[in-house]
Design brief:
Blueprint: E1 2-9, E2 12-21, H1 26-39, E3 44-54, H2 56-71, E4 75-79, E5 89-90, H3 93-98
Helix pairs in contact: 1-2
Length: 101
């Protein structure tokens, strides 16, 4: 099961993902998150992955969405994941949000 929650704060698209992100649940992420990033041409995004179990397929869809944001001329931050996996990574959404200023 995968749960996606998203909202805007201070012009930043914040995404909270929990559950399992894998080949069986990628379609949910694409429908709920990727579609918004593409439609609104998101330029600033934070992915909170602290409650997420992720495999290679899930990691690939996260990276794909980061590339979409970067191709829009934007930037991405992460929280809740090891900084050796995805960078820049912060302890929480507040720190990630503050880093955009």
């Amino acid at each position: 099961m995968l749960f996606c929650e998203s909202y805007f704060r201070k012009g930043v698209f914040i995404v909270r993902v929990s559950g399992n992100l894998n080949n069986d649940t990628i379609y949910i992420f694409k429908k709920e998150i990727t579609s918004i990033i593409k439609y609104f041409e998101i330029k600033k995004a934070i992915f909170n992955l602290s409650d997420l179990n992720i495999d290679n397929d899930g990691l690939n869809i996260i990276i794909n969405n980061c590339n979409i944001v970067k191709n829009n001329g934007g930037d991405v931050r992460f929280c809740g994941i090891d900084s050796n996996i995805l960078k820049p990574s912060f302890h929480n959404e507040y720190e990630a949000l503050s880093s955009f200023n």
